[in-house]
Amino acid sequence: MLEVPLILVNFKAYPSAIGERAAELARVVESVGKEKGVSVAVSPQSADLYRIAKEVDVPVLAQHVDSLRPGSGTGWLLPEAAKEAGAVGSLVNHSEHRLELEEIEKIVVRLKELDLVSVVCARDPEEAARVAAFKPDMVAVEPPELIGTGRAVSKEKPEVVSDSVRMVREVDPDVRVLCGAGVSNGEDVRVALELGSEGVLLASCVTKAEDPRAVMLDLADGVLRARK
Ligand code: G3P
Known about the structure:
eight-stranded parallel beta sheet; 10 helices; 8 strands; 15% strand; binds SN-glycerol-3-phosphate
């Protein structure tokens, strides 16, 4: 299980975060996590899972897997293959890779069977509560309109975070709630944690940064300030 509070960095499909650059970025995330004593994880392209898991000591999550079972199934992402590549889990239903509820449930079940962590994304508190019923390890609420804007959900729509925490808890208190979209600095992280979330899912502030290490240090400081 990933420790919380967690900073989960989604590499998406940013050119600065693929191939060897993905490994370099993962090393930055790893070193800041260790230096600050803060739980961190990365979610690179599937093609980079093996490289990062092998070269860097940081938990790695796939950005997506399918509910496919071993056998025939060309071009789909087999959860077993993600596990063998070194992934500890997967994002599910990211805003940029939306799935039907039925498929989300099947994927959560498949990840559980393999002892892999599931982080199911949701657009709003209602969807967060709906997917919490599938008992994933984590739900990450991300209002789509704030993704990639640099305007943090914790500041722009704090009620989305606190309502998600409350509603998910009502469904299943064991499901952890993360939040994301626009989270850009330590203060955004601190506020997100104060609102009751147990971590952040973020991308562009790190993947597009001129100095990703400086941004990571600031984000980690936000976690430390929330602990006080
Ligand atoms: O998965 C994280 C994401 O959708 C938020 O993206 O760039 O707003 O941090 P960003």
